[in-house]
Amino acid sequence: MEDIPALEKKFEEKIASGIVIEPKDWMPERYRKQLIRMMSQHAHSEVVGMLPEGNWVTRAPSLRRKVGLLAKVQDEAGHGLYIYSATETLGADRAKLVDDLHTGKAKYSSIFNYPTLTWADIGAIGWLVDGAAIVNQTALAKCSYGPYARAMIRICKEESFHNKQGYEILASLMKGPPEQQKMAQDSINRWWWPCLMMFGPSDGASPNSEELMRWKVKRYTNDELRQRFIDRTIPQAEHIGLTMPDPDLKYNETTRHYEFGEINWEEFNQVIKGNGPCNYERVHARKDADEKGLWVREAAEAYAKKKLTMNS
Amino acid sequence: METTQWNLWEVFTQESPGDPHVHAGSVRAPDAEIALQNARDVYARRGEAVNLWVVPTEYITASTPEDQGAFFDPGNDKAYRHPNFYKTPDGVKL
Ligand SMILES: [Fe+2]
Ligand SMILES: [Fe+2]
Predict the structure, then answer these.
(1) Please, how many CA atoms are within 13 Å of residue A159, restricted to the half-sphere of its CB?
(2) CA dist B63 to A254, B60, B67, B70, Å?
(3) Which region, left, alpha or beta, applies to residue A28 given φ > 0 means left and ψ of -120 to 50 means alpha?
(4) Smallest Cα–Cα separation from A159: which of A181, A179, A140, A178?
(5) Average pLDDT, stretch B61-66?
(6) What percent of chain A has pLDDT over 70?
(7) What is the pLDDT of residue A1?
(8) For chain B, which domains are there?
């Protein structure tokens, strides 16, 4: 019989002294469950995140933009796969995880339920959405679960290209004619607040935060990460002449942080619940791709079997 | 539930010639050939590897964390396997 309290105590001690947890190490069921939930949600976000950007691949304004966007979207597929792979080390089954996304049992980042209406939105996503992801993932690269932390290190190396290609798109639109400048500003007006929501509810309203912080899965609170993102992003916006749609935004000389207005958490809750502009479309597109790809998976499997019998 | 899920393969990448192969993660694939191609697409999009190994996950046997102490003990208590165990006369540099 396992002595659970003793194992738990040893586990907490390991966490406290900064020892990284590996797949075969003993861990509380709840730690495993929370990680599977969080990591699969993250993997789904990478995969669903390809859809809004994929929408513009065929309409990119130049070959330079097209190859950049294509490579970026391919990276996001890779990110999804790194994290699914890391989630499987916890005993989760990949097919089941994907199934949970399709049935709506599993969530993904609320940001991807917004539509990409203009080319400038591709700039806004690369710069802001990936910018927010960088802040989040840099923190997760120090998380207590080894395979997740290692996947994050791999991902962080690739994100800076995503961030820069987005910023370059907006910077050149801002140097263009007034119509292009207007298009760029309009995209920021629509994406800024949803990006701030990406970090999740405020510390007081975030039910999982405390436990995840204690286990060093999360190293900073949602509010801390949100502030970090705002502080690094505003100077970049000012540099190319973009303004955030927040009249309360101002730099506080004493705290050396930007102060910002109230986030509309009701909108966030609605999007999470499935009432965002594109929730149905996104999950439907994933299911569709899964069904349409079934024959490819079956054919490859049949071919592999055939080769095996021919060789024996 | 889906009918088809390909097998799991562990991926090891060699960063440059002469380096050891290091575990990178896993991919799903129906056979070794596709496992290699998937591993290239997932773990070597930017010259992260000059060589790849893929191994069916089920063929990997790992030591368990519980026997960490006892299992590695034969290596841990033999001071005479280390240079510090041996004395050198003063004035000589070895
Ligand atoms: Fe990503
Ligand atoms: Fe990205």
Answers:
(1) 22
(2) 54, 10, 8, 11
(3) beta
(4) A140
(5) 85
(6) 100
(7) 62
(8) 1-61 (3.10.20.520)
Report residue A204's pLDDT band, with 50, 70 and 90 as the boundaries: confident
Q: How far is Cα A171 from Cα A165, in angstroms, rounded to an integer? A: 10
pLDDT of residue B4 exceeding 70, the answer is: no
Residues A230/A196, Cβ–Cβ less than 8 Å:
yes
Among A19, A94, A298, which would you mutate to test the B interface (most chain B Cβ atoms within 10 Å of its Cβ)?
Answer: A94
Residues of B whose CB is below 8 A from A303? 30-31
- Residue among A26, A78, A290 whose CB faces B42 most closely: A78
Over range A199-215, report the average pLDDT.
88
Closest CA to A290 of A115, A156, A102: A102
Residues from chain A that touch B3, judged by Cβ atoms under 8 A, are 294, 298
Q: Which residues pair with B28 in a beta bridge?
A: B8
Q: Angle at the Cα of B83 (from B82 to B86), degrees rounded to 5?
A: 110
Which residues in B lie closer than 8 A to residue A293 (C-beta atoms)?
A: none
Within 8 A by CB and 6+ apart from A294, the residues are B2, B3, B4
Is the confidence at residue A251, as pLDDT, over 90?
Answer: yes
Q: Quick check: A307 and B4 CB within 8 A?
A: no
The predicted-structure confidence for A253-298, as pLDDT tens digits, reads as follows 999 999 999 999 999 999 999 999 999 999 999 999 999 999 999 9
Distance from CA of A23 to the nearest CA of B (A): 10
- Residue B12's pLDDT is 98
Task: Classify the C-alpha dihedral A274-A279-A280-A282 as positive or negative.
Answer: negative
Q: Is there a contact between A114 and A195 (Cβ–Cβ < 8 Å)? A: no
Parallel/antiparallel/unpaired status of strands B51-56 and B7-14:
antiparallel
Q: Are the Cβ atoms of B28 and A94 closer than 8 angstroms?
A: yes
Distance CA A86, CA A74 (A): 19
The angle that helices A63-88 and A94-103 make with each other, rounded to 10 degrees, is: 120
**Assembly ipTM:** 0.88
